[in-house]
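note to self — DONT lose this again. spent like an hour looking for the file last time. sequence + predicted structure for the chain T wanted, 208 res
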Amino acid sequence: MSLRADAPAPPGTRIRRFGPAQRWVHRATAALMGVCVLTAAVLYIPQLAVMVGRRELVVRVHECAGLALPVPVLLGLASRAFRSDLRFLNRFGPHDRLWLRAALRRDKRRSSRPAGKFNAGQKVYAAWIAGATLVMLGTGLLMWFTHLAPLEWRTSATFVHDWLALTIGVVLAGHIGMALGDPEARRGLRTGTVSREWAKREHPLWRP
């Protein structure tokens, strides 16, 4: 029987937050995204390009990682638990508006930031990174397969691809920075469980 996040329980009790499917999808997607970002940096920063060399190989690795980026999520759809988490991420409620309003005001009080299994910031990030990935994939295909579109389209695709890549790098840096500041959240992704105290404090509306 599942324990409720607000139910009495002995100190130190841990509750399940993620199953194997969710953790695998996150790790695989993070690894592929990391390869894309690192290879992009090598391709666009002259100093790194000189240090690494073998530009053609770096280009191929970047292309293959980019094409594979949606694969973990698509495979994860076979998992009922993963699909359930996607529904949570795609559903915004009144408490999410309160969370975002408090974040914009930099109100750090826990009472002003109600959250279910995922807070509003995580939902916005998930939606943004999913959309950005699709745009990067589409523009990348136009750049790779030059016969798919006229020159004007390819030029625009290159512009969007390059600037969106920079934006993704900045957003990912912020995401990693926030994760580094929350060891229990990282533990939840690593082991699948979190402490009941953390769940009650950070996600009081979550009912596992």
